[in-house]
Specification:
Elements (H helix, E strand, L loop, with lengths): L1 E6 L2 E4 L5 H5 L28 E2 L4 E3 L5 E3 H5 L3 E7 L9 H16 L6 E7 L7 H8 L9 E5 L4 H10 L4 E5 L5 E5 L4 E5 L4 E7 L5 H14 L15 H7 L2
Parallel strand pairs: 6-7, 7-8
Antiparallel strand pairs: 1-2, 1-9, 3-12, 4-5, 6-11, 9-10, 11-12
Helix pairs in contact: 3-6
């Protein structure tokens, strides 16, 4: 079996030594949330820059039906992340989904917010529609909140999506050179506005539910300018401002 590195459209052969983490044979325990080193400013007192539009793609939902990525990233404010159903890295998928569950409860308390979460599998071979449906049951129990788990039909159809989001992955190839799965360990979440443009990217250090909730409300206030606080000069987003101080 061979593995190929895919990063921003470039492909090169590499060795990948951390496959055991992805296979998840042992649970190393629950991760603690990163300590917040700054006080997040109130919603609407800063501006989230437009980072990039999202290219469309065809994926599969948990029932096996095709769904366009544009249908999952437009019309509502969206938080999108990538995952494996079998990941047990405490700073990986379990931590991401625990963070999202906390954030979901905050969003659910504000009926004025139209928000969805989208979790995209990195391993279409293993994470079939049935597998993601079973995995997502814990998170999709509330029918009033849209949390979609999706996969792809096969790895080659997933790679353009990963490339568009700048996800650095390794690809397993079988003896015939066919891609069988991707391996990915850099946790990121993407905040997308209702027009389908990425407005913030959260790495592990900035996965703070309060910061993310304020960012969601800031995007929501863009469509309700009369509700925006009078803040004078516009400021950087909390995550970007914190990065600039490092």
């Amino acid at each position: 079996m061979h593995r190929t590195r895919v990063a921003a459209g470039a492909i090169a052969t590499v060795l990948f030594a951390a496959a055991g983490v992805a296979n998840g044979t042992e649970d190393p325990g629950k991760a603690a949330a990163p300590r917040m080193e700054f006080m997040p400013p109130p919603p609407g007192s800063y501006h989230l820059q437009k980072i990039q539009p999202i290219a469309d793609a065809v994926l599969l939902d948990s029932t096996g039906l095709t769904v366009r990525l544009s249908a999952l990233t437009q019309g509502k404010i969206t938080l999108l992340t990538f995952f494996y159903t079998y990941c047990v890295d405490p700073l990986g998928c379990p931590f991401a989904h625990t963070t999202l569950a906390d954030l979901r409860d905050r969003v659910a308390g504000d009926r004025a917010l139209a928000v969805r979460f989208v979790s995209v599998s990195l391993d279409p071979t293993h994470d079939t529609p049935a597998a993601i449906a079973s995995y997502g049951q814990e998170f999709t129990a509330d029918p009033k909140f849209e949390w979609r788990f999706v996969t792809a039909r096969r790895v080659p159809e997933l790679l353009p999506v990963l490339d568009d989001f700048g996800q650095d992955v390794s690809v397993d190839l079988d003896q015939d050179g066919r891609a069988t799965r991707t391996l990915h360990h850099m946790l990121k979440m993407f905040l997308i506005d209702a027009r389908g443009e990425v407005r913030e990217i959260y790495s592990l250090a900035f996965l703070q539910p309060q910061v993310m909730f304020n960012d969601i409300k800031t995007l929501a206030l863009e469509t309700s300018p009369s509700s925006r606080p009078d803040s004078g000069a516009r400021r950087l987003s909390p995550a970007l401002a914190a990065r600039s101080r490092q």
